[in-house]
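Minutes, project check-in
Item: structure for the 749-residue chain
Input as provided by the requester:
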Amino acid sequence: SCAALGPRAAMALSRSGSFGGSRGGSFGMGGSGGSGGLTTGLFQRTLTDMIKGMRTQTADLEGYVAQCVTEIKAEAAHAEAATKACAVQKAAYLHMLGYDMSDLAFRVVEVMSLSKYSHERVGALAACTMFEERTEVMLLITNLLKKQLMSSDPFETALALDVLAKVATPDLARDLVPDILALLGAARAVTRKKATMVLFRFFRQYPDAVRPAFKRLTERLEDGDEGVIGAVVSVITELALHDPQSYLPLAPLLYRLLGEVKNTWTTIKIVKLFGLLCPHEPRLGKKLADVLASIIQTTPAVSLQFECIKTATIGVTQNQELIALCVHTLCNRFVGNADANLKYLGLTGLANLLDSHPDAVSSQADTIFGCLDEIDTTIQRRALQLACGMARRATLADTLDRLALHAETAATGFAADVVGAALELGSRDRYALVGDHAHYVRTLARMARSAAPTPAQSETLAAQLVDVSVRFPEARPAAVGAASDLIGDVALLQEVCQGSAEGGGNDRSGRGATLRAAAWLVGEYAPAALASSASPSPVTAAASTLEKLLQPLAGRLPGDVQGAYAYAALKVYAAARVASAQTPPREGESVEMLGAFVGAHARPLWEAARDPETQDRCAVLCAALRLHGPEATAALAALVEDEMNPVSEKAQRKVRVPAGLDLDTALCETVPPPTPLAADSRPPPATDMYSGSGRASPSGYGATASDATTPPTMRNVGSFYLGQAPPSAEDGSAGAAAAAAAAGGGPQG
């Protein structure tokens, strides 16, 4: 080890005594220097002994450490230097393990002031490990460090610089700045380099030292040693992060160094410093363009190449040739590299260019989208962020198609990220980027059928399906077509049904919101859908939609989705009645047959429903089947003839508050708790009107057992819903109007 350090180090260590003593620890502390310390030196536990003992103490480690701490405190007070140094050495090790040894701080100062270099080295290590800014003995080492800084022994000077780099305080920085500045002119380059780096620590602790030291520091930029130049550039770069404009006068000298310095790390620091200066001096970017282009094309160092590209993207954005070179290099040498780290850096560099040169980045769309197939999730997310950032109105449709494809094929976690990015991209600035709204709703439906969306994303997706359809009439035919496919998607229905079964009627899958929105769209825009359908007659088109809404799987859906299905079936049936009055059905088709089909399939849904709202809407649907005559058709038309229009979010602000209406005062100070009913005052459970099983009837009214066998087309369901006598054949118009009013004012309201 001494030979490796050089002849001067060997002489210094030989003068320091037994550096590698017979029982030394990490620094060779052991042995004794005189007869007075012979017993202590022979039987003292060294650092190696203590570490071995700690590793063998599996049962009572804390007790063993406590014993060692007691020994260390006793040994640190010993007069013999080697014993004291060994104790401090062990204390520093325990402090690094988390044991508080700060009460030995004064003993550390004593060891630092010993004459042997091996002892000073132990004290310096302990000080770097144990001392903090609030350590009380810090004031005691000022003169000691000053003495070591002025020492003719370069190893003592190096120890003092190492300690100051770790434990310098504002007081130490203020008192020792002159000594550090003097070392900038030391004969040894390593001393000048260390002194330069310690200056940065002083600048952080004592900012007032920057101005008087700046001239001496910048003089070292013309030092003959590249290591010293690199240290000075590093310090100036860190200082320029806070105030770049103050360092613009150094630009000519730094520009000359950029062509002279051969050290890659120093060149990287100079290029980074120019990246900080260029935004404050536009002419500097024009001067650097050729130099940066030359380095990018010739250097074999990837780190230097990337730093030049980063600087070009910050301060030389007006040079189109340089930007084209940067994009080409990023895509070929970085993104196209098999190394994942370089690939990520390449994507980061492209992201830096996205705001200033979106067209240049968009030209590499295939390369960027190819990164979505990478195994590394950080690369995938970076590429996804970049793909969304370069999307424009003209390219959004293609971007959404690619994202939808990855949502169908990617792993579950990243697929959810893709869906979230697509939803945010489409809805940005109220769908400002969406040029083809019909394509967007079809993409939403495509992602809804995939397994990618999370429950929260399903809610957002459903809300956007409805929002886009209401805002943009040209998207409604595509929205109704996509919604019709969704409500009949068997795989999606089975997943929601399974989630409902596992959640006890609640939608654990989170996908029910999509079905609810799709059913709403099918019902809300049923008249337009029937009118534009390719089917030969409205009855045929309505029958196809009603088969999906009233299929057996609908009875196993969550309650809110069942209610949406039932209400959509009502509106589709009403639209078919109105359309058939204007366009007669084909031969073999009739509205009565359609009503019979609806009644036969709505009755099981009503019977299986557990949700009160679903029961209510099924009752309305069955009541509507009982209505006949022109007046009934006109009443049903009220359900579907008015379109829902979008309402401005500021509309409520335009409503004037009536005089005397106080909306700010609370109705009551506290809300009283509800009073529970007495056991004898609770109503008896209703009997089942179908099987006598004790289940409450869907309508909430009692019924006879004979009603269970009555066909749906012959039973007066409307009388149960309306709570009145069934209308006679002669009085069909009045009953029709009343039932239609109930149908329109109930679920729709």
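Outcome recorded: The chain has a mean pLDDT of 81.
No further action items on this chain.
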